[in-house]
Amino acid sequence: MAFDAEIRQALIDQVRRFVTEKCIPLENQVGETDEVPQEIVDEMKQLGLFGLAVPEEFGGLGLDMETECLVALELGRTSPAFRSVAGTNIGIGSQALVLFGTPAQKDKWLPGIAAGDLISSFALTEPGAGSDAGSLTTKAIRDGDHYVLNGTKRYITNANKADLFTVMARTAPDVKGPKGVSAFVVERNTPGVSVGQPEKKMGQQGAHVCDVIFENARVPVENLIGEEGEGFKVAMSVLDKGRLHISAVATGMSERLIKEMVTYASERVQGGKPIIDHQLIQALLADSQAETYAARCMIMDAARRRDAGENVTILASSAKLFATEANGKVADRAVQVFGGAGYITDYGIERFYRDARIFRLYEGTSQIQQIIIARELKRAAQADQL
Amino acid sequence: MKVLVPVKRVIDYNVKVRVKSDQSGVDLANVKMSMNPFDEISVEEAVRLKEKGAVEEIVVVSIGPQQAQETLRTALAMGADRGILIKTDDNVEPLAVAKILEKVIGEESPELVILGKQAIDDDSNQTGQMLAALLDWPQGTFASEVILEDGKINVTREIDGGLQTLSLQTPAIVTTDLRLNEPRYASLPNIMKAKKKPIDEKSPGDYGVDTAARLSVVKVTEPPVREAGEKVEDVSELVTKLKAKGAI
Predict the structure, then answer these.
(1) Which of A71, A223, B71, B111 is deepest in the core (most CB within 10 A)?
(2) Residues in domain Acyl-CoA dehydrogenase/oxidase C-terminal (chain A) (predicted)?
(3) Residue A166 forms beta bridges with which residues?
């Protein structure tokens, strides 16, 4: 479905207004207190942000990928901790249900996810396995009408607030590799599920990651998402979408940092003129702009193709690789343009510099994206589709 | 009760306006436009009255170019029920706006009209008062509180000396001041639903109102650039300087 252009613009304008008026003034506070204030969370719920990617019939907005990315670009223009509050409900925490859930599963959980009353989280990574879902060791062994889960998940975003987890676990321990993995919805209050303390992190204060531990946690069979053995497929589909979303968030941050750099460089005087008139500064700004624009174009192209039904695995990974690496360079240049001020906490630039670092790590590191891109290229070549 | 809320599309309050080089007005090219903030307060008040059950229907009206439809959609997303766009590319002055609204009110028969006390583009602060005069309705301007009670409208007004409370018989005109409420953010689902709410399209001619300008703008200029002050050593030097300038 092509999205109405006027509605799309109204949505983007409203999100930008929310970010500008409500989030940006609180950036320093959230960075210091490691907590997004509850009032802001409530306002995000009222605004409908948690339901961006949940279909309308379940109380969400049912945005297409192009519109979701445009909204994510706007959400990227402030500390990523704000986006993270709703981020797992919008993305990796909800999409397994949206894409593969049964009608009963959708009815049960999606309305709460869309309203933000249920926080959903995605539990794939383990101490010994991450993007290579084939190496997972968390087990889910069928016992009557339940599966019994045992294992530990690591660095799970929003785990401390989560009511639901999408968990990838091995249902066939004898089957090595991805085929033995299945996806489940696990409710937080299931006996045997516990969540560790939030990790202390380099950046993104206000957003939290924790271990999630399953000790003989009995999950009803009706909580299986898709078929047994489809877990890897579920995870990869969810991540294709999540990678575009994260690319957009990172690129939104780049756009914000360009604005901050240009504003600062226009005011800061050295050698008798604003530093924006010094050519070495101009090069930093121009490279940032060119790379950020290229990233935006890649994201929008991949999003439109996904909306048109194309397989975008290689495009999503390319966009994630390029957009987040570009963002890292832009954040580094922002510190450089600000000079000493870029290193001082009050200016907020060093905070963005730290926040940006995670974009090249989660939802698959840059190296994982390279591997996926190369793997897909090889596959396409073998099928004579290049 | 039916409430009518006129809304105006103006330059967004965050935009730094620039004067056109020929001094004929301000530059509107590629400038972000939004609903007049006082009108947003009016829509919010109407929606709150509806949520309390005191109001059944909220009709929003905008007089302006085609894009004023976006302003109506914003009001519909906030909770208004339907819109009327009175399309014109002319700069419609407050008296003509009041005359058009008088006719709209004749057709719609609202019992309450809530207007912003002024629009932030021309800061006229006239339309509400003119409309009350044309209709010969009671008016409560600069409202900081509006309470509906037994067919009466109690309006607390911000006046120079403090607060004044009036009791108005319906139908009545209320104009809103800054402290009446804090307008909500239209939620994203409501923005999407607003597209389905009806907007009627009319023209000033449909109401037989001549919108030709009665005023002509002679010149628009930037405020003078503030000049640097002077530093003085002590109070006696300050007093001497002020005396020398004839200021005291």
Answers:
(1) A71
(2) 229-377
(3) A122, A185
Mean pLDDT (chain B, rounded): 94
A46 interaction partners in chain B (CB closer than 8 Å): 184-185, 187
Q: What number of CA atoms fall less than 13 Å from residue A359's CA on the CB side?
A: 34
Task: List domains and CATH numbers for chain A.
Answer: 5-115 (1.10.540.10), 120-228 (2.40.110.10), 233-382 (1.20.140.10)
Residue pLDDT, tens place only, A137-184 = 999 999 999 999 999 999 999 999 999 999 999 998 888 888 899 999
Place of tokens 């000790």: A215
CA distances in angstroms from B133 to A26, A61, A228, listed in the order given: 46, 46, 75
* The token pair that represents B33 in the structure block: 């436009």
Cβ of B195 within 8 Å of Cβ of A51? The answer is no
**Which single residue is written with the structure tokens 């940092």?**
A257
The single residue listed with the structure tokens 């889910």 is A140
Task: Report the residue count for chain A.
Answer: 386
The label of the residue with tokens 């009327």 reads: B84
Tokens of A264: 């600062």
> CA of A232: how far to CAs of A178, A182, B88, in Å?
6, 7, 59
Q: List, as one string, the DSSP characters of B97-148.
A: HHHHHHHHHHHH--SEEEEES--TTT----HHHHHHHHHT--EEEEEEEEEE
| pLDDT on residue B207 | 95
pLDDT of residue A2: 58
Q: Which residues contact A47 (CB under 8 A, 6 or more apart)?
A: A14, A15, A18, B185, B187, B188
Cβ <8 Å between B191 and A46? no
Say what the pLDDT of residue B149 is.
Answer: 87
Structural domains in chain B plus CATH codes:
2-244 (3.40.50.620)
CA distances from A206 to A61, A257, B57 (A): 26, 20, 42
